[in-house]
Amino acid sequence: MKSYWMKMVEGVGQLELREIAMPEPGPKQVLVRMQAAALNRGEFIAGHGLHGSGSEAKRVGTEASGEVIKCGAEISAFKPGDAVMGRCAGAFAEYVVFDERELMPKPEALSWVEAASVPLTFLVVHDMLFSQGQLRAGEWMLVPGVSSGVGVAAMLTAKAIGARVIGTSGSQEKLDRLQPLGLDLGLCTRGPDFHAAVMQATEGKGVNLVINTVGGSVFAECIRCMAFEGRLAMVGYVDGVLHGDMDIEALHAKRLKLFGVSNKLRTPEQRSSGLTGFKADLLPLFASGKLKPVIDSLFPFEQLAEAKALMEANQHLGKIVLAAPH
């Protein structure tokens, strides 16, 4: 079967399409014929956590949708023919083996392409907005870098539960496209200069939750924008800035909570622990059609390099997806 592999060379991911043997599922694994697999920026960044920084080539791709082909001996929740979606290793391949704990049924309301765009990104969003962020209807959320994949998914989810969203982006065109999807206030900037606008929009109270997808260059500004008992999720650093000033007085007086969102050091058990809450909180929203991922583009299986280049050019809005091979 066809499978994409990648290795990091001087910080740049080099792709290779290989012909490898069909995998065999273990006792607690499920073999799936891939229908679609979504790209994620982190897997193409050295050391970011999804791929690592080693020189050896590894299978690439971390979320997919498809049809169950074969189940391991201890699998009872799935059967051949089931439509599923989930997180995995090596999603950019004809066939993918999933750990049962990372697999879930595909809602009928979602296409294969949409379903492939849900498992990783929206599980991260669930971690940020529900498990740790405790976002509630009527609260304000700020997303620097709202036009990123995680940013868009966070905005859509927040709106689905009745929260209000402020987002920043360096592209006014992207902000304009997000407003019909629910963005309450779009600020066209890449710099740490949004405090005044945020405070004006929130009547001087600040935001209840910050999703920092940008990194250290806006960290201090995010702290300034936080309300009493505000929460901040640190989820990305596309700016490459890994340090930021900390206003300890604000942290103390406003009883702020800061938390990281990463699977880099988690065990498989820890990674899969969030699926129960995800299925309870978000799957019904997908099943009802109230929540849908935004798809930017769909590439043929043979054009993963072109899809990767589009992601790295930062011109997309929403998810970039790779179709199954013909």
Architecture of the largest domain in CATH?
Alpha-Beta Complex
Number of helices: 11
Q: Count the strands?
A: 16
Q: Please give the domain count.
A: 2
Mean pLDDT score, rounded? 94
Residues in helices, as a percent range = 25-40%
Give the radius of gyration: 20 Å
State the low-pLDDT regions, or none: 47-53
End-to-end gap: 12 Å
In terms of quaternary structure, the protein is single chain
For the biggest sheet, the summary is:
7 strands, mixed
What is the succession of H and E elements?
Answer: EEEEEEEEHHEHEHEHEHEHEHHHEHE
**What is the molecular shape?**
globular
Strand content: 25-35%
Output the CATH class name of the largest domain: Alpha Beta
Structural class designation:
alpha/beta
- Please name the CATH topology of the largest domain: Quinone Oxidoreductase, Chain A, domain 1
Full CATH superfamily name of the largest domain: Medium-chain alcohol dehydrogenases, catalytic domain
